Amino acid sequence: MPADFEAMWREIAPVGRNVATGGYLRQPWTSPEAELRAWFVEQCEARGLCVERDGLGNLVGWWDVDAEVEQGGAPATTGRRDHPTRRRSDAVLTGSHLDSVLEGGAYDGPLGVVSALAAIDRMREHAVVPRRPVGVGVFVEEEGSRFGLACLGSRLLTGATPWATARELRDRDGVFLADALEAQGLPGMAPDHVDLLAGVTTFVELHVEQGRALVDLGHAVGVASGIWPHGRYRFDIEGVADHAGTTRMEDRRDPMLTYAQTVLAANEAARLAGERATFGRVEVNPNGTNAVPSRVTGWLDARASSVASLEALVERVSARARERAEGDGTTLTVTAESVSGEVSFDPDLAASLAAGHAGGDWPVLPTQAGHDAGILSAAGIPTAMLFVRNPTGVSHSPDEHAEVPDCLAGVDALAETLTRLVS
Q1: pTM more than 0.90
Q2: Binding-site residue ranges for Zn(2+)
Q3: Chain segment 371-400, per-residue pLDDT in tens
């Protein structure tokens, strides 16, 4: 008997959890994330879902409706690992990711995967016989926390990022992506790689809300209208290393001063424009207590309501940084490492999913967070997202949370959504 939602949640809760902080360290192609992917395969097999995987570790468990019909409507007793890609058309895919940001929360990603498995169970309980293939997917490296490129698994699947470029990415320890995959027994994107999106014509992702809109609106579930454009930009500031005690303040070429003023400028620019700008990662060289640094590298996460607003925001921050660098005697180089355009989810699909529920229409709202759903939408796949209420709005933090009743409401919402799409 497959585990229900709460049992599945208890099973994965300890995996990758830092007991001291409560945060999660589920970086891609590491032991905790690999353990979760193995757990997902086991859950699929318990439900008779046929598991396909590619050379990156992306996974899809397919509901084999034809096999169930042959068995009188009962789920298959065993799933098949590494089932070859079969000729599939007009398929509906759901799911999310299992990796986390550094010291992240429990719900961002895994909630969508666990809810998808539970939604399959709910549909079977209601004797739903899909007229379209249904898959539950897991995308790797959604957060970009290890190799710096968010939604890397779905970008490679859709061709948004070439494998020749991705394989050369390095993590903070200098490990190439290709080598990290090889260490996990994964070949990467071989010429004959499995196309997990073949035949997929609709994608629905359930996700914990990363904000407080549903709390303010008094709803447990909402529907996404779109995703703000956003990007990651590396600010490399070069100065001159020197002695912290003997070097006069006026003689210094200190990149830390330039960086500090840039952080303040980003905060001011975003607040005035009603946008988002965050420097959340910094590296200092040589990183000594009694030394003026020679180099500071900071990463700006910028998000805005339109592409033009995003470009204007980044340019304002960069201009202020260049101005400060000139006064400090430092040099500045700004590099766009990852930029995602504005995503508008299929409006007809969103309106259809939001309307006519027992508790009234679900609210439709935008999100400032990036998701694999945005990558699939940009690739031309009609896409929708469901959000589950987050009582505090906190995310990418150990304090990220969703109440069990709201999670179960999300399972019901996803099951209802999938039933509408496949019946």
Answers
A1: no
A2: 97, 108, 143, 207, 396
A3: 999 999 999 999 999 999 999 999 999 999
